[in-house]
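Structure Section — protein described below
Tokens — whole-number codes for backbone shape
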Amino acid sequence: MEDRVLDWAVYEKTAREMAAEGLVLLKNDNKALPLKQGETVSVFGRMQNHYYKSGTGSGGMVNVARVVGILDALNECKDVNVNQKLAETYAAWDKEHPVELGLGWGQEPWSQAEMPVTEELVQEAAGESDSAIVIIARTAGEDKDNTLEKGAFMLTDIETDMLRLVRENFQKMVVLLNVGGLIDMSFLDTISPDACMYVWQGGMVGGYGVADVLVGDVSPSGKLTDTIAYDIKDYPAYDNFGGEERNFYAEDIYVGYRYFETFAKDKVRYPFGYGLSYTDFKIGVKHASMDFEKGVANICVKVTNTGKRLGKEVVQVYGEMPQGRLGKPSRVLIDFAKTKELVPGLSDELKFEIPLDRMASFDDSGATGHRNCYVLEAGDYTIHVGNSIRNTTECLFFELAETVELQKLQEALAPYEKFDRMKPFCDENGRMLIEYEETPLVTVDMYDRREQELPEEIPVTGDKGITLLDVREGRATMDEFIAQFDDEDLACFVRGEGMGSSLVTAGTASAFAGVSPNLIAHKIPSVCCDDGPSGMRLDSGMKAFSLPNGTLCGCSFNKELNTRLYALLGLEMTANKVEVLLGPGMNIHRHPLNGRNFEYFSEDPYLTGYIATAQLEGLKSSGVSGTIKHFCGNNQEYHRHTTDSVISQRALREIYLKGFEIAVKSGYADSVMTTYGLVNGLYTAGSYDLNTTILRNEWGFTGVVMTDWWASINRRGMEPDANDFATMIQAQNDMYMCCPDGSKNMGGDNVIEALQDGRILRAELQRIAKNVCNFAMNTNAFKRLVGEPVEVEIINRPKQADDFSIDDVEYINVDRDILIDLTEKASTADTNYVIALDVEHPGEYEVSLRGSSTLEKLAQLPCTLFFNGFPVSNFTFNGTDGKDVVIRKEVKFYGRFNVLRLYVKSNGLDLKDIKFSFEKEF
């Protein structure tokens, strides 16, 4: 047995550190920040009482014991005083105007109704305060893009009036943006606050990180991972975003700063990599040289704190390449590093060894004479060093006399539909202007390629008594082990079971590998994967730690801190018997309105790849793994199940695949999730070029690939079919997520049928079984199964009244009707009843909740029923004179495993039982 310890206090401290380091200070005039010691501050904005810890959907559904908001943290600060009279005014209004959470998936609004403020209220607050803080908050998330509406990307009229009144009455005004992604920043022109800071969504202790920066305990050191333009129409993807059927990626590789710095520098409000500090730094290059034999640039940078406060600085390294025949962005990020915390006068030296291939371009047209190759075109190359893309100095120059071919690849994942893509040209005055060229289209048949690369079948031997433990111990080969399984067994390997499979931790996303009695008997473990990336989603109601969102973690530019934080998450996963986190999220911020940008890091693929690598290193150091997602081109949520992303090979290679490639090659990623949608006319779950040609054959990936949950699959030219597992198997997308029962074909998949008619070979199923078993053999689930459990003791975690152990959750079999007694514990305020059902007959059920109350008849005693993490029904009792009353609602069970949580809001209710009665099938 291996024992490890997770110190919850260290966990909170590390998350707090991240929350502070990822904040980006955009403006700080009039010495508005940090707040002065003893200063009184008035906090405006109703979301001071409802801090957004994350966005919505699977990436944000972490049950937490508490959320520390900005006001909470400021109230705990000894150095500043909060205007409590104003805070009480907001609290009273908030009580009368509760937030709207929505019922069901993706129904939470982007913002909450703001409290109107009067000039009298603001003047009174100004008379009692030195400064004002205004909190603007937004959410967005899975299945729900942001929109160009007031209350979404734009401010509401009430918010604008609030900002105006505060500006008119306060000498110092600070605006904090508690948001998941960029919003309209035109208020900086019309209102002109003294300070403005993106504080993002910092997880359950995010408010502490914000307060640490506000009061000056921490100097801000976050940098923008996206370019902030003056107008959303200035973003290059504006005309090709939000399509219902398809989006042509006509901007090609010119995403974010690659576009703005090349063509439209005047459209930029704040550039990529920008972020202010409370102190000043001098960045100097001590040494820079080229090692052409190794193909690397060696650079040593000295950073000195020349200011008066502690602080950290980010050094960013950019490459400038010749335009050549292909055309290039004016600069690209090729490395970055963050200093340690420096006291005034002290320095830190950062050393960079930068492979030249980071400045390479992919030629998908043959314009250089090297089609489907990464090349360094002949011409001048310059490397720049600084603290943003706009604030750099030249540190190294070299010239290539001729074009160099670095890597020859195959045509793969090329577009079928004609479209023109952006390309730069230089006019007679040296200005870079935009022209368009035809995008190279597909010339190779992916299905022919598969036929030429089919694996060899392992002869079936029948059961020889070999277990997976024998393989690990070297007593048998993996091929000998796999040879024992017949077709029905092999079919089980492609079925992930869930959600909420009883084989693994209750309320998690899926079980895979050991999903049948026979597979488990052969020591194949049931591996648990769970939604992330910012903490564990446990639909059982179990509490978990909510981490800062992906964008904030990216803005930290701190690889070491990301590794440290995710190592702690890995320990928490181990304590909860979760082996695989469904994250990091790695899609590119192609457009500011993508609702899921909060889960992702940046508009830049290099930064994306190395922040993801850092998080994977943390998870792996604790013995668990992460699933990099969504592979690839998942850049909008609107119609995400049906939208086709039409992308050139070059843009795929240089932008949309590059981060994943880095995570595989540098972060040793061993689990990948494909997308819901299509890339170049094909659902990614059925793309051989994506999952085999590129991922496995080119990058050397040896892990497992899973679909997104209930994804569609198709062959080119065919309609999508979620049961077409045969096409998925051909592509070497190993597992379908997810099926109601992994041990049998309850969903109607076509695996056995396709084996019999020759669409797939047994060898392809055996290949998938080997992929899955190789992964499973290296998990904590395998160690538990063979008697080598890894135990994690959690210390210093505050006790909660409704805490329970995951081991206490047992699934109850439901034929058609079941009555569950609720009297084993008192139904006092904040009580949770966790009910896990294994339903034999999916369909519509009546839910009957029986209870009584001795309170007055007008008393309101609400209970909320959560189903797989979502609120689906409210049961509101009144006083009943102590007599039993039954309230009936409806609930739909779509699958076999269903985890419900009944939450009791108030004291005074005596719940007796809850009954589920089958009504009809769908």
